[in-house]
Amino acid sequence: MSAVTDGSDREASGPEGGAPAGYLSRTRSFTRRGGRMPPRHQQAYDQLAPRYVIDVPREGGSTTVAPAYCLDPAVAFGRVAPLVVEVGPGSGDALIAGARARPDTDFLALEVWRPGIGQCLSRMIEDPLPNVRFVEADAEVALATMLMPGSVEEVWTYFPDPWPKRKQQHRRIVGPEFADTVRRVLRVGGLWRLATDIDGYATHMRKVLDAHEGFELVSTERAPLRPVTRFERKGAAVGRSITDLAYRRL
Questions:
Q1: Residue 214 forms beta bridges with which residues?
Q2: In the β-sheet with 132-136, what is the strand arrangement from edge to edge?
Q3: Rounded to an integer, what distance in angstroms lies between the CA atom of residue 67 and that of residue 141?
Q4: Are strands 132-136 and 106-111 parallel, antiparallel or unpaired?
Q5: Cα gap 203→237, rounded to integer Å
Q6: What is the pLDDT of residues 234-243, one digit of tens each?
Q7: Which domains occur in the chain, in start order?
Q8: Which 3 state secondary structure label does DSSP give 72?
Q9: Candidates 6, 138, 161, 197; catalytic one
């Protein structure tokens, strides 16, 4: 999962930090990254963002979607179709492969890193994908309010930041609270697909989700639409094993 836009580990909780009074501080699962794009990605963003990036109301920071806002996918995509949400698409390998393979399904990508969105869009210049949309947002917050309960077919969380050091592990996005959030948006029988190349994070994912009463493990096979990426091949070359998990919403 990509990262970005601001430097603190905690969401600001008062006017000085730009957040509304009473806004709860929380630990973020992402960290600061540079905001500049290569010219080719910037050009793609400028050209395609009006079509593919959904402009949402903000509250308390550039990556925080106003909690009163609810996205209507039928309006955003111009049709009624099954919806897949990817949390942190990175350079867009799985997102683009999935959208190409399933033209009858809509794909919503939540990405906090605008240069990542620009990189994804640069890959769509020559191959437009009408079933893809982006929201520049912190998925941990946005998914709690932005989509209607039971409105999503699948949620994808592929290779999130592993935060490998013990003192950092509380920042991992896959935890009990986010599991509750994902369960909220999934339809009954919908799938949460996850992947990681860090054994410790794989164990953590299993521990969290096996203990959650709202999910059951249904597969440890590679997700059918998840491509083998350059990043994954590099990990395998240094001996990292890839763990795929699929949990069904009960």
A1: none
A2: 132-136, 106-111, 83-87, 152-158, 186-196, 243-249, 215-219
A3: 8
A4: parallel
A5: 21
A6: 888 899 999 9
A7: 15-249 (3.40.50.150)
A8: coil
A9: 161
First-residue to last-residue Cα distance in the chain: 26
Extract the tokens encoding 205. 């994912």
Phi, psi torsion values for 29, nearest 5 degrees? -95, 0
Element (H, E) at 39: helix 39-52
CA dihedral 79, 84, 89, 94 (to 10 degrees): -100
Q: How far apart are CA 232 and CA 197, in angstroms?
A: 8
Give the DSSP letter of residue 241: P
pLDDT digits (tens, 9 = 90+) for 40-90: 999 999 999 999 999 999 987 688 999 999 999 999 999 999 999 999 999
Instruction: Evaluate whether 11 touches 24 at the Cβ level (below 8 Å).
Output: yes
Quickly count: other Cβ atoms within 10 Å of residue 186's Cβ: 26
Active site residue 104: no
| CA atoms of 178 and 182, how far apart (whole Å) | 6
By C-alpha distance, which of 189, 193, 177, 163 is closest to 87?
193
Q: How far apart are CA 94 and CA 127, in angstroms?
A: 15
Mean pLDDT computed over 96-123: 96
Helix (H, G, I), strand (E, B) or coil at 208: helix
Give per-residue pLDDT as tens, 32-45.
344 688 999 999 99
